[in-house]
Amino acid sequence: MRVRYNYAHYLVSKEKYNEAIQEALETIELCKQRQTSYQLAPLLILVGNAGAKFLDREQVKNYYIEARELCKIYNNPLMLMKIENYLKELDTV
């Protein structure tokens, strides 16, 4: 999971947003199939960030909200602050 997340992150850094989203979404499906939440929140954030250029604003927001809920469940305050910031930025656009 981590390797696939890193690869998707690399694709974002190379501005290959479609490929990054595809990789992240496939990995999210793997997480669901294996019933694991490992790397799920970061993957959802990655889809939101990479999709900001061409996805509907509500779609992006929904990815962030899903990630936020996971961070609340697993008590990850640092990532939660980042997500809150992303959501705030979305609301100002």
Account of the protein in words:
This protein has 93 residues and is mainly alpha-helical. It starts with a helix and ends with a helix. It has a single domain, classed as Tetratricopeptide repeat domain (Serine Threonine Protein Phosphatase 5, Tetratricopeptide repeat). The mean pLDDT is 95. It contains five helices and no strands. Helix content is 80%, strand content 0%. It is globular, with a radius of gyration of 12 Å. It has helices spanning 2-13, 17-33, 40-51, 57-73, 77-92.
For the record, the CATH architecture stands as Alpha Horseshoe
- Number of spatially distinct domains: 1
* Oligomeric grouping of the chains: single chain
**Beta strand count:** 0
Strand content: under 5%
Computed structural class: mainly alpha
The first-to-last residue Cα distance is 32 Å
Query: What Rg do the Cα atoms give?
Result: 12 Å
Binned, the helix content reads over 70%
Biggest beta sheet attributes: none
- CATH class reads Mainly Alpha
Shape designation: globular
Q: pLDDT average, as an integer?
A: 95
Summarize the entry for a quick read.
The chain is an all-alpha fold and 93 residues long. Helices cover 80% and strands 0% of the residues. The radius of gyration is 12 Å and the shape is globular.
Give a quick set of tags describing it.
Serine Threonine Protein Phosphatase 5, Tetratricopeptide repeat, globular, mainly alpha, 93 residues
